[in-house]
Specification:
- This protein is mainly alpha-helical and 377 residues long.
- The chain folds into two domains: 325 residues, no CATH class; 37 residues, no CATH class.
- Helices cover 68% and strands 2% of the residues.
Length: 377
């Protein structure tokens, strides 16, 4: 039997049906979310910095709308870092240009002022790394805090029965991220009815969702920030219903919902593990970059910063691969098609279909085949 001996312990909570936890409301609450990227000082940063700034500004607007203080802090750090990132990347590109010009016998004396400024570029890089340490450290801290709050040792996810640790983990997720009290819902509906009496039924529903966004949008965004959209949506859809089944003694489909609960908690745990590994890779990349910049400032032989930068780039690439290819997928699978911009995916699907028809006499399923690989074969 389940570790819960009686449903009375659940009476304190009011678990609303899944219908009340509508996906439409959640999508309205989180119309946009930007996770940011790892900005290791590089000449390439100049090219994607404008889009990074634009995404951060849009996300900041949504953070303000939902009173998401956590998101506001992240976006403010990114926006403050942006000028340093642009200037550093710009000077890096200028340094490359001056180096190329020197091969064409262009006197360096013509760039004397510029040359003296270029010597300060590593300082800008160190400032950028400082911001990145704060952001990567915050992401790591959030994942570790949720992992600790759920208190799920590996042994608790084995076996057929739901352990007390698993039940408490579901309750913790519900109280922190899924609880939608009916009193607040009723107050919102009454407020909309009084304030906008002329609205049609559909317009009233949309207005209620808008006010619900203000009431609960911050929690929605915080959960997505920790688990990424796919897993966060599953938590908000499934946790209330699972706890409702336990509280009401739903023994008809007991085996199914117990298995679903274990799979969901296992998914949450894997998401947090992936997130922690991702941030560890980011912090290692930053540490090596800081060492390389200090080596440049100390006038060490060029081979030392070069090796450090190469190794740092490897860790940065691994972090990027986990972030884009794995974080929003279930389990430890790498989805290569996530690297393809959405605007190019239809064209890529047509090309892939042509290749399969021509060389394998088969076609990909509608919507595109994904390059999906398991890390543990």
């Amino acid at each position: 039997m389940c570790a819960v001996e009686s449903t009375n312990s659940f009476n304190y909570f009011d678990f609303p049906p899944v219908a009340q936890q509508s996906a439409e409301r959640r999508s309205a609450a989180v119309q946009h979310h930007y996770f940011g990227t790892l900005n290791i000082p590089s000449m390439l940063n100049l090219f994607y910095a404008p889009s990074d700034i634009a995404e951060s500004v849009i996300d900041q607007v949504h953070s303000e709308k939902t009173a998401d203080m956590e998101g506001s802090r992240d976006n403010c750090l990114r926006l403050i870092e942006s000028p340093f990132n642009i200037v550093s990347s710009g000077f890096s590109n200028i340094e490359i240009i001056t180096t190329i010009l020197s091969y064409f016998n262009v006197s360096s004396a013509q760039f004397s002022v510029l040359t003296s400024l270029l010597k300060k570029v590593p300082i800008l890089g160190l400032i950028i790394c400082g911001f990145e340490v704060l952001m990567e450290g915050s992401g790591m801290k959030r994942a570790m805090a949720l992992r600790s709050a759920l208190s799920l040792p590996d042994s608790s996810l084995k076996g057929q029965e739901l352990s007390s640790a698993q039940i408490m983990s579901l309750l913790s997720l519900y109280k922190e991220y899924c609880h939608r009290d009916e009193v607040t819902i009723s107050l919102i509906e009454d407020l909309v009815q009084r304030k906008f009496p002329a609205l049609t039924a559909q317009e009233r529903v949309e207005k209620v969702r808008e006010y619900e966004t203000l009431a609960w949008g911050a929690k929605d965004r915080q959960l997505i920030r920790r688990l990424f959209p796919r897993c966060a949506q599953e938590v908000q859809e499934k946790v209330p219903q699972l706890l409702r089944n336990m509280a009401t003694g739903n023994f008809i489909h007991e085996k199914e919902w117990r298995l679903e609960a274990k799979e969901l908690l296992s998914d949450v745990k894997m998401q947090l593990n992936k997130k922690m590994v991702m941030h560890v890779m980011g912090l290692l990349a930053i540490a090596l970059t800081i060492a390389a910049l200090i080596a440049v400032l100390c006038a060490c032989p060029y081979v030392i910063p070069l090796v450090l930068i190469i190794v740092s780039s490897v860790f940065s690439t691994v972090r990027c691969a986990i972030d884009i290819g794995m974080m929003d997928t279930k389990g430890y699978h790498f989805v290569g098609s996530n690297f393809i911009p959405n605007c190019l995916k239809p064209s890529c699907h047509k090309i892939a279909n042509w290749y399969h028809r021509t060389f394998t006499q088969s076609t990909l399923p509608e919507g595109g085949g994904t390059m999906e690989y398991s890390l543990f074969l």
